[in-house]
Amino acid sequence: MKKLLSLTVCLLFVLSQIMAQLSVPSFFSDHMVLQREKPINIWGTASAGERISVTLGNAQKSTRTDKNGKWSVSLPPMQAGGPYTLNVKSLKQTLSFTDILIGEVWICSGQSNMEFRLRSANHATEEVAAANYPQIRSFNVIQEMGHTPKTDLKGKWEVCSPASASDFSAVGYFFARELYQKLNIPIGFINSSWGGTDIETWMSMEVIEHFPKYEKSLARMRSSEFEEYIKHSDKVKKEFEQAIINEPGEKEKWYLENTSTENWKEHIVPSLWSNEELSGIDGVVWFTYQFSIPVNCLGQDAELSLGTIDDDDITWVNGHEVGRTVGYDLKRLYKIPAEVLKEQNTITIKISDYRGGGGLYGPKDEVYLKVNNRIFPLCDNWKYKVAVSSAQYDYVEYGPNAFPSLLFNAMIHPLVGLGMKGVIWYQGENNAARANEYIDLFPALITDWRSRWNNEFPFYWVQLANFMSPAKQPSESHWANLRDTQSKTLALPHTGQAVIIDIGEENDIHPRNKQDVGKRLALHALHNDYGYNSIVCTGPIFQSVKRIGDALEVTFNACDEQLVARNKYGYLSGFAIAGADGKYQWAQAKIENNKVIVWNKEIQQPVSVRYAWGDNPDDANLYNAAGLPASPFEGHISQ
User: Fold this and answer.
1) Which SUPFAM superfamilies match (predicted)?
2) pTM tops 0.85
3) pLDDT given for residue 630 in this prediction
4) pLDDT at residue 558, as a whole number
């Protein structure tokens, strides 16, 4: 018993010593950049009641820890310069950090296009070799989740050099380089990003709780049984994955023509799963569609286009497998042998979805059968049957999108209080199908982050690039809706948007041209925050539209610069107009008195106009004289 007591006392003593260790968050470290011309906040932990002294250059402050061992000091603002040494002392310990610079600090956040590394950008070899800027520093936050707010994160500051820059955020680096080349002072950027993430995971629980949709998720996160729930989830997830492998459709041969579909339900194709039964589920869903072709098209090879499918598919025509593809962002284009087609035909698709949205989701004009250059559209109400649904399993895949706030808690909250200039943000692809929610979520995130820093700092973001196949006819678009939502968020003060509708890639959601992305973000900072008033930071932005006869006259903000049609003939393209029926048609357009006149001879009394409205409006060519593209828009004459 005495031995046990002695061991317990020793253990408690050791633990108390560990708890009493002087510490600061990981971003207070060698090579860091601290924000100039603002109070320099430094904080950490030590033993309760202990005296702490902090020195940076000639600045020195002392304080005592509170009863929980927490301490903080605020050093007076300093001008750009360095290097300095930061010393943090307690009675028994000293933490010393060297090569500290004072300059401009920006937080870079979002999903994969912000995470995207310099080594993968255009001209990566040359860019990395030329990245010799010792006064540019990057802190890559190690990806981590937290169901409660954390006080520290993992990562380290790297001095920009050819040896280190390849792992930098490409957007962050090109943004920082533009600032450095103009300001000639140290620039630090903190890259806190995670690919494939929803905006909700970057929002605090206190803000998310104002959205009723997340009430159940937040209650579960705040439960004392949350950790046990995650373990249970992992177990049930494995059961779900096994159910996908054993799904009944293939065993029962649902792909055969004689399969009864009397009790199958209907869903519009193409579109992501969105009805009450399918919305939000993962699993296996079978789709089928019957169609006919003329006799004179028989006996010929055909081509079946299904656009993109999220995630994987196996496709049959009249019971014959014609193709299978793994990957949510790949086009499905399958050859059908001549002997397979008949006058009456049945397409059957098994779709397996593992996370996020599911279904056939490409443009309408990519869903067709082609026989001897004749196109048979297949956009319609298809029948479907759920084979396996995640809704049948009480599990959550514990990734960054499993619950709201997971990344805010772990990758943003620890930074709160650190002096910084502003934020650049590149996110939205994951929320593209939910623009109606993003319109409230995005400004709520910005407002909340600002309130936590107690500073209405600049917040600049990247509008979604053009992506996927261009539409042959004007059509509805999730991506266009999301871009419109991003533009509407400019109503918040001290915000700006880098429009990149001209540099996306049809087949890659990650455009490699990150140079222009970083530069266009930097234009906003230089113009708005650093006194470069002569720099033009934005392209034409829709202001108003009015009808003149059977044409529409569009006026733009930010039109100190001359409007330009980037076309060797001087023609504008990318415009569509609609009458009272709301059916958009391509329109002619011209620049006149620095406004745009839009018309279509087939439409009398037009009431609305769209520009660059689509997933990939590849022909949009309205710019200003500074070379910046106009932002996509939709306008109505009642506005």
Assistant:
1) Galactose-binding domain-like, SGNH hydrolase
2) no
3) 98
4) 66
